[in-house]
Amino acid sequence: MKRLIVPSVLILVGMAFCVAAEELEAVTLRFSQVTEVEGGSSEVLPYADPYVEPEFSSIKVEKVSLIDSSDIKSAYAFADAVMGPTVGLDFTELGAKKFAEVTKRSIGKRLAIIIDGKVISAPNIKDQITGGKAVISGKFSMDDADALARKINAGLPKTQL
Question: Where does the signal sequence lie (predicted)?
């Protein structure tokens, strides 16, 4: 009987490992300025929000990345009482400084949050954001927020985790 149980346990553990590895496929993350300028410095990307009207299903952004994965220390999911399921971002020391400067220069403008080549959010920046933290909210479930946080973490440089 023991000989049958041990291989079954090993198979289940192996299957669980494969599922976990698949779920942690890293994403590319960047923040870029939304623009109206046509030309070589901008690109049109799909807007991934399924609730956006079809005529707004793409958005023009600067190709230059203002913030990227190297500026993020960690990502985590949490339930916000107002915004619902949310992904929190903690920036590195340098990333916090860059994000504060970017949001200061972007007051009154839109800043696109781009994951795997799709804009998931493009909020209007109303104030400079300091303190080294930011949030990504949207119309997703807690499981979606948790999966996104794990994928962002999987894409971070290993020295930051």
Answer: 1-21
